[in-house]
Amino acid sequence: MPRRVLIMGAAGRDFHNFDVVYRNNSGTEVVAFTATQIPFIADRVYPPELAGPQYPQGIQIHLERDLASLIRDLGVDDVVFAYSDVSHEYVMHRASEVLATGSNFVLLGPDATMLDATVPVVAVCAVRTGSGKSQTTRKVAEILRDAGRTPVVVRHPMPYGDLVAQRVQRFASFDDLEAANTTIEEREEYEHHVKAGTVVYAGVDYADILTRAQQECDVLLWDGGNNDLPFYRPDIHIVVADPLRAGHETTYHPGEANLRMASVVVVNKVDSATPEQVEAVERSIASVNPNAIVVRAASPLTVDRPEELAGKRVLVVEDGPTLTHGEMKYGAGVVAARRGGAEVVDPRPYAVGSLQEVYNTYDVGPVLPAMGYSAQQLGEMQRTIDAADCDLVVIATPIDLRALVSISKPAVRVTYDLQEMEGSPTIRDVLAPVLGG
Questions:
Q1: Which residues 6+ apart lie within 8 Å of 64 measured at CB?
Q2: Are the beta carbons of 203 and 240 closer than 8 angstroms?
Q3: CA angle 329, 333, 337 (to 5 degrees)
Q4: Distance (Å, rounded) from C-alpha 309 to C-alpha 307?
Q5: DSSP of 322-388, one letter per residue?
Q6: What is the pTM of this model?
Q7: Half-sphere exposure of residue 153: CA atoms within 13 angstroms, side-chain side
Q8: 291-311 pLDDT, tens digit each
Q9: What's the longest Cα–Cα distance across the chain?
Q10: Helix H segments across 118-169?
């Protein structure tokens, strides 16, 4: 009899693990997925068009809170844990819940799940969400283009809509982003690359994506999500660490595995961290991966109209996943507001709808996380901003939120890029093997 498998996920790594390891495996039957972390993704079906001939009805996606009863009712043998940026303690609590039912708790390794490309692969990953992975990826893409290489970015999955339609997504223009009805989270990751002329792929089936993406590039740039491991086997594996959360690099899954696998570790935010925090992260690197090249980098902030901050009461909108999955209490917007002499207004009393649930679920500080997984959430963000008693809105999301949400109050924008520190190896240095002559 085939082993009965349940995959715990969050609409990303779980689908990839299924596609690569289980879809065509006659010795197993995947009887369910569970979902967490992301709103509006439970009570769906992984469709038969993607699941393959072994699953003519598709595979049901359930809420993770029903895990124990699902294991019992479906006669599950193996439970595969397949999502990211959770503490080691959290993982073992889930493992204990599974083991108490009598089932196996499984973590699939990189060799089982990474695909091999025909072109060089540079992977940019992180030890935590919000470490600075996106600006590092932008820097890598810029260096590759300047060297005459043609990069294509393949982004970690964010398939929150029609999974069949999202099987393989290619973005080469802003019209492509509009046509795909992309969420805020997707736009934050795609827009910068598209604007710079770099094609972005994403979706659900990363074997199909790889086949297409490698046909139009000479370097494939894997842009990781959360602190997950690469889906493609990297020739250069860059991992970004955050000294503002010193210690997390060895206490979160699978961030620690990324740290141990890295060929290059970028210690970011050294301009805002203390020397003690930076030294603590570098001690961790030396302990678990002494052969890694260490790049020290800053994320300098730019405010488009800094003079407007002084003396103002401001509502700060920050990158959503950094505050939720990444467990940061604040981000670049709060730092810029305080440096500029502004008073940060707590938006929590004004939150409506699902934003209230976000604050109840995550220990977020006095900032508004940009949660745009649906038109409903965009509307709730707009109503929250409109209701807040403030003079000015500070937008510190990777894209200008005003393109998606009508903000009636005056607003300023905070942006940030990666800058290597003097005396440190540079990103260009570590990319030498793929830059060519």
A1: 8, 34, 35, 36
A2: no
A3: 110
A4: 6
A5: HHTTT--S--HHHHHHHHTTPEEPP-GGG--THHHHHHHHS---SSEEE--SSHHHHHHHHHHHHHS
A6: 0.92
A7: 31
A8: 999 999 999 889 999 999 999
A9: 70
A10: 133-146
